[in-house]
Structures are given as C-alpha cells and as structure tokens.
Specification:
Blueprint (H helix, E strand, L loop, with lengths): L2 E5 L2 E8 L2 E10 L4 H13 L4 E12 L1 H16 L3 E5 L3 H9 L7 E3 L2 H8 L6
Helix pairs in contact: 1-2
C-alpha cells in the first residue's frame, strides 16, 4: 500500500487497481480511530476516485461511528457514479453489519479481486 496512517488501534493503507481504490483497514474502528478511515476515503473522493474497496479482513472491530462513515462514503461515491464494496468482514463485524441490514445497502465480496470486478463497470462522473 502506498500511504499508511497509524492512529491508536487502526492502521489504514491505500492502494489502487486500475481505477478502483483499495483501502486496507487493520485493527479497531471506533469513535476515536474512525477519522482516519474518513480522511482516507474523502481524499480519494476529492481526487475523483469514486470506486472504493474497503479490505476489512484485518478489521477486528467496528462500532456505529465506523458504519456511519461507510454509509457516508457510499452515498458520496454513488453521487459521483461509483460505489463502495467491503471485503472479508470478520465474524463479529459481519454479524453487526447484517443485524443493521447494511448488507442491503453496501456491496460485499469475499476477495479484493471480486470486489474490484463488481465496481469496474461503474463510471465516475
């Protein structure tokens, strides 16, 4: 990954596959740490990148503030013709994700490659 930020219990890295951006999130995403996730996504959106994969395989925890950021980023990406996809949610994170019915709003995939393929056809405006 090209850029990495460290904030207490969350590491965020950014990479790209063609016109799809990939944000790797490792650790706990909570009220204190989630701002780095928002900053990373906002930086991408502000530079015209509207197809974003969140690789969550190493995210062990996410609270409501983290889910709120994902929904906000999704809304911004959709307005620009793109979308987001989440990859490899850990079991506790996936339970909360489904309990909140976010699986009805946000694309999920088992691998980064699968997520990239789901987002590739979209055209950013």
């Amino acid at each position: 990954m090209a850029d990495t930020w460290h904030v207490s219990r969350l590491k965020v890295g950014i990479g790209h596959r063609d016109d799809v951006s990939i944000i790797e999130a490792r650790g706990d995403c909570d009220l204190i740490t989630c701002r780095k996730l928002r900053e990373a996504a906002d930086n991408l959106l502000n530079t015209g990148r509207c197809k974003i994969v969140f690789d969550c395989r190493d995210m062990s925890y996410i609270d409501s503030s983290g889910f709120r950021i994902l929904l906000d980023v999704r809304d911004k990406a959709v307005k620009k013709g793109g979308n987001i996809a989440l990859v490899s949610l850990a079991a506790p994170v996936e339970r909360a994700f489904k309990l909140l019915r976010l699986d009805e709003l946000i694309i999920t995939a088992n691998t980064v490659e699968e997520a990239v393929e789901k987002l590739k056809p979209l055209q950013c405006t």
